[in-house]
Amino acid sequence: MARYLLTRAWQSALTLLLSTIVVFFGVRALPGDPALALAGEDRSPEALDAIRRHYGLDQSLPVQFAQYVERMAQGDFGVSIRTGTPVSSMLTTALPVTAELAVLAILLATALGVGAGVLAAVRRGRPAEWLANGLALIGLSVPHFWLGLLAILYLSVATGLFPASGFVPILEDPVDNLHHIVLPAVILGTGLAAIIMRQTRSAMLDSLSSDYVRTAKAKGLRPRAVITQHALRNSLIVVVTVVGLQLGGLISGAVVTEQIFGLPGFGKMTIDAVFQRDYPVIQAVVLLTATAYIVINFLVDLLYSVIDPRIRVTGDPA
Amino acid sequence: MTVLTVPMADAGPADVTRRTRVLRRLRRNPLAVVSFVVLALVAVLALLSPWIAPYSVDQTDFARTFAPPGTPGHVLGTDDLGRDVLSRIMLGARASLQVGILAVATSLVIGVPLGLAAGYFRAWDAVISRFTDLLLAFPFLIMAVGLAAIRGASLGNAAVAIGIAQIPGVIRVVRSDTLRLKSLDFVAAAVVDGASDLWVLAKHILPNATSVILVQATVAIPAAILGEAVLSFLGLGIQPPAPSLGTMLATAQQFAARAPWAAVLPGVVIMGLALAFNVFGDALRDALDPKGDRR
What we know:
Oligomer: heterodimer
Strand content of chain A: under 5%
Largest sheet of chain A: none
Number of helices of chain A: 15
Structural class of chain B: mainly alpha
Number of strands of chain B: 0
Order of helices and strands of chain B: HHHHHHHHHH
Mean pLDDT of chain B: 84
Order of helices and strands of chain A: HHHHHHHHHHHHHHH
Distance between the termini of chain A: 13 Å
Helix content of chain A: over 70%
Distance between the termini of chain B: 19 Å
Number of helices of chain B: 10
Largest interface: A-B, 46 and 43 residues
């Protein structure tokens, strides 16, 4: 297992380096002089020279890249062209919002997806399976931003049950915070729930027809115990795998959801930055997403080998 | 696979029986038939929409903005500029299909050769795996944001961003199918026979991998259609005044107080399109499953 983890760690580090190189050259591919983009309002030649020196734009590419990595590692993402605030402080206010939204969405999707998936597998060929399958297909096909739009129109505006937009920090007022974020989390969670449901169902069907479940049934274990103790154990692995694989989709979904519900998170910051051509912010967003993706997937692999003993023994994901 | 159909290089008759079996299974599945008919209808409508749409998509009528559905002359009503909603939905669906097909074509053109190489040549596997990891680290929306920042927002750039994001999925399924096929006897026979690697890949492995590629493409198109809708909704995809279901929803959000119904139809059309593809994709996967009538 140690060897497997070491390999994964080395692979993750390599991917991280490669993605940093991609972003570094992506920034250089931006239209116009980077110094000009970084300068914002003050575009005097002296200011531009100062920026070129500060960011090492007068150095060779390898030197520039080394300095770039050093700055990024220290969390120095530059200053927003539009607001003048350091990008790092924008991130510290935006990231908790997105993290809360994503965690809530994952929890909701897991509860819903595993529940419906188990139900569909156990009630095979019955109306319950048809309903669960149909809902999962719709969940895969519905544009979630549209669901969000309808939810705002018909649940928030029409009935006033939920606030249509805005956000209250959790430390300020936990109840009001939940009130603001529950609808976006449900919307973001539906797509993930559909994927978890389909995977859970097929994993359950496989394990229900496996030898160890037949043995458990044969020795007289009650059906409920067979499902919860033997078959369902595997669905934990399914959830961890799906969340790891779907992390990119979750990040994309969070961006859209935040935009619709006006949540001041990472996603809204991203979209605003694109339209304001706020390049330092865009760069930070892209680099941070890639880093988060790589690190979280590495952690998922760690977790994976903890949950599934087969991986610990063979050193290879099943 | 029966004992009699030896999977040799020119397994012509076996191929034919397999195809008829798959088609028969599809015909017997009502969901497959319905979704296929829906897709065929939409495809025909989309192809012909520039000629059969009742109005030109840019034809404004400021005397009749926000006409509700059912207005004489405008079955589905008009939008904020008095443009006919039915016509714009028809051309919007056409744009959705265009992006869907363009994106999936992009991912196949790049992903299939890489998947074949990763599965066939051990030495390439590690390199291509790192490439896949790298692509995965940039979610499609972040990729689209980056592309929009560098090259501007457009239908083409949206399709490219979605297509690039779909490459890892293509590589994964093609790679694993190549690994499976490579271990079969007929490939070994061809290698012993002195066939070159390229010949084996092109003549033996790729033709046998088409079914997994087909299924992958069928489920990737609805994902791309949803992706286009999201990007256009955010303003990162198709640019107004060109018709797009995503931008129609963005406009609807802006004018939700005046015309709440405008938010319903474009969404229903996007969902219907994606649903038809997903249902058909499921049916196709079941029909191609050699394990038979497992549902």
